[in-house]
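Hey, I'm writing a tutorial for new members on how sequence and structure tokens pair up, and I'd like a real worked example in the thread rather than a made-up one. If someone can provide the structure for the chain below, I'll link this post from the tutorial.
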Amino acid sequence: MPTAKATKASDKALICRKFVTAVQKLYGKSVPRLDLPVLETLMFAVCLEDNSWDAAEQGYKKLLASYFDLNEIRVSSVTELENALQPLREADWKGLRIRSILRYVFESSYSFDLEKFRRFTQEVALKTLKKVNDLSPFVKDFTIQQILGSHMVCLDPSMLRAAKWLGLVPADSDLTDAGEFLKAGLKKSEVAEFCQALRCLATDPKFYDRFFEPIPPEIEMNSAIDRLAEVQQPPKRKPAKPPEKAAKPPEPAPKQAAVPAKKAAPKAAAPPAKAETAARKDPAKPSRTAAKAVPAKPAKSATGNTKPPAGKTSKSSAPAQKPGAKKPATKKPRS
């Protein structure tokens, strides 16, 4: 895991001074001072978290100008406070924390006065702030440092992220551990200057996204100046992947010579009808398909009986002959 190696306090102090000097060349040497009542110091600390000092001042002034008094802020919704605190980062959380502060103070004393805080010891002050809902570690530490003048290094998440990337603190440290780690290399009079330099760098829009990049392994604290120079350079672009060779289109199949269509064999003549073949063999015989001759009705005999018709001829038989002349009927002699 990446670590920031610095075994001696003198090494930390030297690196911190070099860091502050290098950053001041970018942002100047001015260190802002805060002179506000305790309650408003708490509210300003909320605005300052993860933002530059100038942006926090503008956001805090905009909040106060948007409402009639602190009591109106106390009874407002988080969404309304969020809109008033735009464009500060995490304006929704800031609105919730400011409302929680005002509600705690008002419910404790039915006023918006927290000046008794100045008489507290650091331990009592910290216990008091822990009673306020939703407060972050940075807001607590910043208020104690500003009001009581304690020797504390106040880091917010943006400052901690930048310090880890530069190698100023161990990569696995949280806000409290990182503050204690840097405290050993900073005098009480140097804390404000160092925190301002680190805040300017961490919240600069040009570098803000760079500190989200992965931290190289085995980073050391004495590489902070080199890392500072690196962050000012344009980010290295990953080498573009060589374009993949386009797959060759499949070769078209060789054209085959057109095979002439086979001529259809002439259809065989339909076999002659059976009647025709039969007629050729025996012209006397009528064809089977010929219409059947309708036999003439037999003539009635003198006795009134009809003569039975001649026997039926088969289909292949010859046509019926015409009946001959009728023979006269012979009467049997009486006995």
